[in-house]
Write a structure and sequence with these properties.
3-stranded antiparallel sheet; globular; Aspartate Aminotransferase, domain 1; 2 domains; Aspartate Aminotransferase, domain 2
Length: 386
Amino acid sequence: MTSPQPTQRPQRPYFSSGPCAKRPGWHLETLNQALIGRSHRSGAGKARLQEVIERTKAILGIPADYLCGIVPASDTGAVEMAMWSLLGARGVDMVAWESFGMGWVSDVQKQLKLGDCRVITADYGHLPDLSQVQGDRDIVFTWNGTTSGVKVPNGDWIAEDRQGLTLVDATSAVFAMDLPWPKLDVVTWSWQKVMGGEAAHGMLALSPRAVQRLESYTPPWPLPKIFQLTKKGKVDGSIFQGSTINTPSMLCVEDALDGLKWAESMGGLSALMARSQANLTAITSWVEQTPWVDFLAAEPATRSNTSICLKIVDPWYTALSPEDQAKRAKQLASLLDKEGVAYDIASYRDAPPGLRIWGGATVDTADIEALTPWLDWAYDHIKSLE
């Protein structure tokens, strides 16, 4: 016998880790003022794009001397643009502990083929030994491991007097975690994560040290047009003033502005971080009293408050073969999807089987609290099938 279904449902069952839930109260009419049919190069179009940049810089507290721009191909494009444009001047430490970080490792080793490349890794659920990182080398890492639910707790391990650059994929961290900007030289993210924006647009922030590298170093490989950040040996300032390398969607731009204005109305970055942290707290309270589940992140200080990854620890489940474990975890997520109470919460395809629940700022804690009884019900149901 399975337990009865819970009676309360999440009002918004959108717990996908990307694209993520829209802000509370979002509706399609929000985009009515979008500059549809207008050139992004027009005065009005550039002004909208520049407004996204300026509001973003203000909310995140990006230092005034950093450049910030909109670039193609989401966070992936921003990371690749940075690596292809900046790496190779020094040896590089690639720090990875989940699939996206390992993807950047693969690109540096197999595409850029850098000879002086050290790879510092850890298994899912753990951080690598960050003390191995050397300040005279470039560093590439993800601030928050979106597929493992493991984040770096702070930037204390990054040397103040480093000579190399820090390149940070921060797409599931910005707007939800406190980043030590003076220690970060290149920061990338997309609109589709914490702010719940639409896909395909990335953002790139560059410190003065990163700009100096761009203007003093020419990589030995050819750069595709969408990766080119310089013109005639100088950084292309137009990218950071409302111009874009390729054509952006003005619908997506309008949606990004709506999210930024909502963030401002909520109280800015501190309020966004508090909303996300409240979601993690709600799941933590449930995990602490639920014997069949635990966090994938081994250390509490490294547990993500956005991409919250869970593993099943019930002895019944762990006794199954790896294939059957994956099957049961998939059944669990599919059942919740079918019931319309949680969409897209299966763990990432390369990660250990389990659940991944987005807890970013656009998710209401009340919906997280309404979800947890359904998780218990669904697990009970799957287990009863044996």
